[in-house]
Write a structure and sequence with these properties.
Length: about 170
């Protein structure tokens, strides 16, 4: 299949992620507020912070751990996934915060493989995973459902909040 995962490194990965996100905002796959110049610049700073420090800003400038995984198909950068560790009350989980695949690489298994990779890693640790999706992200909803994610609720922002419990039988 030729799909390889690697950590993000350097300016070219930062620009790839930023450009892909911004190209998908008009399609409703990412928050429309990113169209403002300040938000777009803030997104780039956050991406750079994640590459260098493995941390990102949450609202109110709170920092949380974050990791970027790049997806290459036959040596060409094709997509990315950003996971972050969150704690809500007493529950700690990993969130698939942002993810995308360039249009020319879609329908080649990149996102399905990436989500499977994340799920396998978290199953080994017994950690649940969550994701928030905008209504336009039906393709991603199908990918997540195929890996055991279930809609927990629809948030006031319109995002569907999906959760996947770790599969305990995967741990050794």
């Amino acid at each position: 299949m030729g799909i390889v995962f690697r950590p993000a490194a350097g300016a070219s990965d930062c620009h790839f992620i930023h450009d892909l996100i911004m190209s998908e905002v008009p399609n409703g796959h990412f928050d429309a507020q990113l169209l403002s110049p300040g938000a777009s610049a803030g997104l780039m700073l956050n991406i750079q912070k994640m590459v260098v420090e493995q941390r990102r800003f949450e609202p109110q400038k709170r920092e949380v751990p974050a990791h970027i995984t790049m997806v290459d198909i036959y040596g060409e950068t094709a997509g990315f996934g950003i996971t972050t560790v969150l704690q809500i009350e007493e529950v700690r989980f990993n969130e698939l915060w942002l993810a995308g695949v360039a249009a020319r690489h879609r329908r080649r298994g990149a996102m399905t493989s990436l989500v499977g990779f994340y799920c396998a890693q978290l199953d080994l640790q017994g950690i649940r995973m969550a994701a928030r999706l905008l209504p336009a992200s039906q393709g991603m909803r199908v990918v997540l459902a195929s890996h055991g994610f279930e809609v927990l609720e629809t948030l006031s922002s319109g995002h569907a909040f999906l959760v996947r419990n770790a599969k305990a039988d995967q741990r050794t």
